Amino acid sequence: MWVAKLDQQGDTIWDRNLGGSDTDLARDILALNDGTFWVGGSSSSNDHDLQGNYGGLDYWVAYLDSNGDMIWSQNYGGSRFDRLTSLAVFENHGILLAGATGSSDGDVMEAIGADDVWLLALE
């Protein structure tokens, strides 16, 4: 994932490359009032910023400070393709991850069809 913060003139304030040596895709970003950021997407990497890939693509969410430095990151999913497409923040600062999964193992409780909507709430 490539994340960049620009000023009003479009000049780069900072930019960061996040991820590993395999496919890493950013899909959504949320800027919080305190200057921090949530970045979400999917990854099949199992090195550098990501550890413990379940197989295929996993949901991947990262929390960045106001300078773009990663504070925390975690992947979630199962052995098939899990594609995170959007993020939402709750008033209690929890976060909701939304997307699709083809998995029925790992962090995914069960499969209903070939691809299912998967919502995951984090506190």
Radius of gyration: 15 Å
Distance between the termini: 24 Å
**What is the count of DSSP helices, taking H or I runs of 4+ residues?**
0
Helix % is under 10%
How many domains? The number is 1
What series of H and E elements makes up the topology? Answer: EEEEEEEEE
Question: Main β-sheet: number of strands, strand sense, barrel status?
Answer: 4 strands, antiparallel
Judged by helices, strands and strand pairing, the structural class is mainly beta
**Beta-strand content estimate:** over 45%
Rounded average pLDDT: 94
Q: In terms of per-residue confidence, which ranges show pLDDT below 50 for 5 or more consecutive residues?
A: none
What coarse outline follows from CA principal-axis ratios? globular
Write down how many β-strands occur, each being a DSSP E stretch of 2 or more residues: 9
**Strand order in the sheet with the most strands:** 3-4-5-6
How would you describe what is shown here?
This protein is mostly beta strands and 123 residues long. It has one domain (2-122). Helix content is 0%, strand content 50%. The chain has no helices and nine strands. It has strands spanning 2-6, 12-17, 24-31, 37-43, 58-64, 70-76, 82-89, 95-101, 116-122. The strands form three sheets. A four-stranded antiparallel sheet has the order 3-4-5-6, with no helix packed on it. It has a three-stranded antiparallel sheet with strand order 7-8-9, with no helix packed on it. A two-stranded antiparallel ribbon has the order 1-2. Strand 3 and strand 4 (37-43) form a beta hairpin. The radius of gyration is 15 Å and the shape is globular. The chain starts with a strand and ends with a strand.
